[in-house]
Structure formats: C-alpha cells, structure tokens
C-alpha cells in the first residue's frame, strides 16, 4: 500500500492489537512523515466557544466568540480537531477542490470518532449546493463520516458566486444566510451537533446554528476537521 498523500510505499506490519481485535484491520492510509505534518489542537483551558482562542472575561470566551455572543446572544460550542496549517490547506485543496475522494480516508476514522463522542441527539453535516455537488460529486463533510448516523436537515438556498476561500475576512462575515431548514420539526428541543470540514471565521456555522435556534433547538455544538 502506498501513502495516499506522498505516494511512498509503506511497510505494513500487522500488530498484536490487530490480531486480537477480531475486527477490521486498521491499515494506515498515510505514512508517518505525512501524518506528522498535521497538528492537533490542544483544547485545555481555552475559549469555551471555539475551544481554541484565548479565553477572556466572565464568559471565558475569546475575542471572536465574544463578538458572536454579542451578535446573537448565544455562542456555539465548537471543537476543531486539527490546525489549519499548510499541510491541512494542501490536503483540503486536493480532497475538496481537486475532488480526490479517496482522501476522505485520511481523517475519516478519527473525525467520526470525535463526532460520535458527542452527546448530541442529532448530527447535522453542513450541506453543499446542488451546483457544487454536480461539479465535485460528493459532499466533503459527509465523506469524512463513517458509521455516523447523521440527518439531512439543512439545504443551501443561496448559491455563493465567489468561493469562500477567495474572500477577505470582512466579506466572509457579511454573507447572507445561505441555508434553509428542510425539516425543522426534527430539531425542536434537540441537542444538535453541526459538522463542517473547516472553521474559518465561524460565519457558516453561525448561519446554520441560527436557523436551528429559531426552530427551537435546545443546544447547538459544532465540530470541524480543521480550525
Ligand atoms: Zn506520505
Ligand atoms: Zn473562541
């Protein structure tokens, strides 16, 4: 088997753990040197909102989350798994924009474990537009989920002309609500976990979360592969 990222051949040794797990053997899909280019967030003692920023004030929120709190009167409980560093940017470019569907396997297990650890009643991936679906062929968020019971509750109503990644921070924060709820009844009084691939400004997740709030969700958390 070759590394999915650098294509180098990987020596694969079956470990005792594999032998005694009686389950599926967890063959690594990337080599150790590629694996080491990604860095996990360490979320001890950080912002209660995004898990990453420096917590300040009575609410223990970072400056960005304090802004969301002021705007909406509530804040998300977000967790990002990895730093959005150069390796992650490069990964996203290949997986999402070049549409290399195999690359979902690089983080699928670990990310799905994080999603399934949540105490939420319902798991909602951020949707992509019909146009993106036609060009890319898959929803990159759903691609990262394996053995996760998720629900399609949101849909994209506004096709964004410019890609998020080509916008300035200010432009991203000023976008209009791009989603609508397909089945609001599913989220009433529920604890909802939103799932996205990348958390940049939080704008996308807050748009989605505000619809869930209006529909009567009890609690809203979110996770992303990168932050
Ligand atoms: Zn590699
Ligand atoms: Zn924060």
UniProtKB/TrEMBL annotation:
It holds the Pfam family Pribosyltran. InterPro entries: ComF/GntX_DNA_util-trans, PRTase-like, PRTase_dom. Residues 119-226 form the Phosphoribosyltransferase domain. PANTHER family: DNA UTILIZATION PROTEIN YHGH. Belongs to the ComF/GntX family. This is ComF family protein. It comes from Limosilactobacillus albertensis.
